[in-house]
Design goal:
Helix content is about 60%, strand content about 10%. Helix 1 packs parallel to helix 2. The protein starts with a helix and ends with a strand. About 10% of the residues are buried.
Amino acid sequence: MAKYMMNVNCMGPIAMIKGVVSKYMEKFNSTKQLQIVNILSVSALCGVPCRTIYSASKFGLDGFGKALQSEVQDKNIFVT
């Protein structure tokens, strides 16, 4: 169960975002703006008892988004 939740809530969105960003970079080369919106929950900000895997998956996606924002901000890509 934990593997599936991590795949759906964290690894799936990361794979999709990486694919979109790479296509954007090769096609538009920063001439257009790209906005990426990650859907999180309160669980991404603080752990929730009895929901550890869910919280971890949301923490992971939040951390990825924050790190990605710092990497691509000069390329006209914004992460929310």
